[in-house]
């Protein structure tokens, strides 16, 4: 069984997917991943057993890259607008790529990778390492 399901993102929809569209959100770096968690999850409720996953995307899997200049106006608004979801939904529906590289709203100049769980190459994307990732306690200070 693949441990990356996309189910969580499909519950309400996120920046790059509408409700009901299963994708997996990943970050280019550990630092970006922790920033993404910080802006999306109330830190006071983070479990003490939070883990960082290292994911391998084989080099021969083609990645579609979206540059900010290619995105519709307002793609980076907070909260997100449907125009960025349309981009992600189209990526999934077309099924040409297993991975979509998108600019991060949280950290300008860095990138997130959206994984298409319906693409045939998705099963080749693997979690290769999991380790505990305790957050700095200063995050929890009020």
Task: Write structural notes for this entry.
With 142 residues, the protein is of the alpha+beta class. The chain has one domain (7-131). It has 3 helices and 6 strands. The strands form 2 sheets. It has a 4-stranded mixed sheet with strand order 1-5-4-3. A two-stranded antiparallel sheet has the order 2-6. Helix 3 (82-94) links the parallel strand 3 and strand 4 (99-103). The N and C termini lie far apart (40 Å).
Helix count, per DSSP?
3
Ends: how far apart? Answer: 40 Å
Q: Which class do the helix and strand fractions yield?
A: alpha+beta
Q: How many domains, as an integer?
A: 1
Poorly predicted tracts of residues: none
Our Rg estimate from Cα atoms comes to: 15 Å
Biggest sheet strand order reads 1-5-4-3
Mean pLDDT: 91
Helices and strands, in order, run as: HEHEEHEEE
Query: How many strands, what sense, and barrel or not for the largest sheet?
Result: 4 strands, mixed
Number of strands: 6
Shape: globular
What is the strand content? 15-25%
Helix fraction? 10-25%
Which key features would you list for this structure?
single chain, 142 residues, alpha+beta, 4-stranded mixed β-sheet, two-stranded antiparallel sheet, 3 helices, 21% helix, globular
């Amino acid at each position: 069984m693949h441990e990356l399901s996309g189910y969580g993102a499909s519950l309400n929809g996120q920046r790059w997917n509408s409700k009901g569209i299963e994708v997996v959100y990943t970050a280019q770096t550990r630092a970006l991943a922790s920033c993404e968690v910080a802006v999306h999850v109330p830190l006071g409720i983070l479990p003490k057993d939070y883990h960082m996953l290292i994911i391998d995307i084989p080099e021969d899997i083609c990645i579609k890259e979206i540059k900010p200049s290619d995105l519709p106006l307002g793609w980076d608004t907070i909260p997100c607008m449907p125009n960025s979801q349309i981009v992600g939904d189209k990526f999934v529906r077309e099924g040409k790529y297993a991975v979509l590289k998108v600019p991060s709203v949280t950290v300008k100049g860095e990138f997130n990778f959206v994984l298409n769980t319906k693409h045939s190459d998705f099963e080749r994307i693997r979690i290769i390492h999991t380790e505990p990732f305790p957050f700095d306690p200063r995050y929890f200070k009020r």
